[in-house]
Amino acid sequence: MRAALSFDSAPPFAAPLRFFLTAPLFGVLAGLLLAFDGGDALASRWSPAALALTHLLTAGFMLQAMIGASIQVLPVVAGASLSRPLLVARVVHPLLSGGALLLAGGLRWGSGFALESGALLLGVGIAVFLGAAVVVFRVRSTSPTIRGLKLAYVALGVAALLGILLAFALARGWPFELVALTDLHAGWGLGGWAGVLLAAVAYVVVPMFQLTPGYPARPAWAFPLAVLGALVVWGTSATFGPPWLVRLAQVFLAASGIAFAGLTLKLQAQRRRARADATYRYWQFGLAASVLALAMVASATLFPALARHAAWAPLVGVLLIIGGFVSFIAGMLCKIVPFLAWLHLQQLARTRVPSMNQFLRDDETRRPWLAHVLAVVLLAGAALLPVLALPAGLAFALACGWLGWNLLQVVRRYRRCVATVEQGRADDGTPREPDDGAA
Amino acid sequence: MSTPRPARVIDARYLAPPEPFEATMAMLRMLEPGETLLLRLFREPHPLYRALARGGHAWRTELLSDGTFDILITCGGAAPRDGEA
User: Which residues of chain A have pLDDT under 50?
Assistant: First the structure.
């Protein structure tokens, strides 16, 4: 008899799934917006379209996927279960979705009301999630992953507060140092929240799914603390300290990110899974793009003249957010959604079920990945040659739409298997084995 | 780990889920109360911890410098549990 996986604390499939299925839609929207706005969108990081694009990707695509993943992984990687995960998901998902849309719309079309209400909706959604995720602070940090999760949630709160402040400052013309505050908001959001959460989850999933060696304990413990420490130094120095300390903290952050990416690439080079799968391909590309982006951040901090080139910041944004984070998330979604489908079906059927790979075959992920790579290349080109904005936007919308379509196929195959099992129960009281064709 | 290395070791560091969980539960069914088993993984297996607690087994976890989690499991709850590990 097969041992049943411990399943008591796993959230219902519907809880994370709504976030995973919504994330690619924000990518499609971002691509279409870029195609619609054309070359002006990437002419500067401060153009209305660039700000809207950035937030469709960060507060839309990334936040959806990362909150969904958090709801799913907290019991598995930290032993901390949300008390009512489905209720949390039902409340948080519309707040985040509506908030990101309003925020992006407010930035794009200059509506102060949309900007403020979008930021507030996002803030409330994040507050509800963090209120539920406080369970993780009640467990001991027995692994670098748990420490990383705790610090990532702290950073998410700080990034959200800074974002709300910025939205109100923009809408009402408050006299803030908007550039410095925006940089700090981006640092807490991309470095403290997204970067540390990525690392905390990577410590578990890279060895688990890609069969690599584990992350060595010392750097794994140190990375989340180093990132948050540098962000605190950056924030306090921006207010009270000398400017060189801000630059030092920024270079340290970029170097920490490069070190994490380099270590992950080294571990992947030692993997025991001979065949490259979708997750591996997306991660390899994402790590390379991140290293390039972070090297550009460090270079521009040390040599500020570089950053005065109008294309510099948009190029960094494309490489880090789309080349890096969107790639990591897309790769994870191609693995996690079929894994959850398999896990939930196994629990329901309590008999042999189709393998995980039959919910999403590797050949189905190859062309969407190529479309994603092509989109990133075109987007990077569009930062330099505005004429490329239209094909770049359409290519990115296509890549995200393809990813979303693949995830929908997993759900469709899962539902077909569930129907087979339930039909067997209805016929003779025993669950019927869904054959491989059912998936 | 201060405890002597037990005769039964499951090195699951390069096994994909759910093989480590299944191998551990299968091995535990063959052990007598008080016998020990060392499970080696590159992650902390919280779902397994819950199954161990339900089965009355005890465990103690140590993270080694190379990222390996050594989980010493004592069958049948003969030793004190390692807190909320």
Answer: 1-4, 6
What pLDDT, on a 0 to 100 scale, did the predictor assign at position A435? 62
Structurally, at CATH architecture level, domain A14-349+357-418 sits in: Up-down Bundle (1.20)
Confidence class for position B77, pLDDT limits 50, 70, 90: low
Helical residues (DSSP H) of A270-388, grouped into ranges = 278-302, 312-317, 327-349, 362-384
A281-285 CB contacts, 8 Å cutoff, 24+ apart: A281/A331, A281/A366, A281/A369, A282/A327, A282/A328, A282/A330, A282/A331, A282/A332, A282/A334, A282/A369, A282/A372, A283/A206, A283/A210, A283/A327, A283/A328, A283/A331, A285/A323, A285/A327, A285/A369, A285/A372, A285/A373, A285/A376
Touching A: B residues 16-45, CB under 8 Å? 16-18, 21-22, 25-26, 42-44
Class of B9-77 in CATH: alpha beta
Residue of B nearest to A220 (CA): B67
Report chain B residues whose CB lies below 8 A from the CB of A203: 43, 67
pLDDT band at B84 (very low <50, low <70, confident <90, very high): very low
Domains of chain B by residue range: 9-77
pLDDT band at B3 (very low <50, low <70, confident <90, very high): low
Please tell me whether the interface predicted TM-score (ipTM) of this complex is above 0.90.
no
- What pairs with residue B62 in β-bridges? B70
| pLDDT tops 90 at residue B67 | yes
Residues of chain B found within 8 Å of residue A216, distances taken between Cβ atoms = 65-67
Residue among A437, A377, A375 nearest A402 (CA):
A375
The per-residue pLDDT of chain B, averaged, comes to: 86
β partners of residue A273: none
Inspect the interface and report whether the beta carbons of B43 and A218 lie closer than 8 Å. Answer: no
